[in-house]
Amino acid sequence: MKHSLTLYRLLAVLGIVLLTLVFAGSYLDGADALSILTLLSPRSPNLGLWFGLGGIVLLTVGMVGIIRRYCRYHRNLFTALAILLIPPLAFATFFVGCTFAFLSAPMFPMRSEITQVTVVDNSPLVLSLDVKAITSRDSIIDGASVMNSNDVIVAEIFERARALLPAGSEITLTLDFNTTLPSGNYVIRLHGGMQYSHGSALFTVP
Length: 206
Hints:
Immunoglobulin-like; 39% helix; 30% strand; 9 strands; three-stranded antiparallel β-sheet; four-stranded antiparallel β-sheet
């Protein structure tokens, strides 16, 4: 009896874990993140729905087993109520939770990160950037700004910085700002118009 109760608890916990993974996949899917968990989003019918249904079934079986072990009186009544109530509540939680997770994702998720900045020249300023996509969708880079330690823009480039960043790829950008900067620490920030949010990175002009 003790072992069977442990098994039912394990099944209930496993069901909760599966549902939590689906919620996480829904959030990451909404944020266009590069993650294997996006495969568990309900928008991925091959895995997402099966994980969700599996979680509901395991949670239901586990809870019914726990209730039957703890209820000494009216066991059949409580079992019937559990079978009737738990699946609808679990389904409702599943769909509401996935919807909330998807909608709570950032409206303009970060599309890239700058992994390396190299100062090629400073007469005028030429930077080489290694840019890595961190999104599951293609995006556009259409500009860049350089800011000093006071967060004041000291150099900008737009049309000549335009580039396509495919999902999951890494590209190298060479940007000529046509200006010379004094020695110091700066921040380079990439832009993507109104649709795409890109990364930034520190660099030093010797």
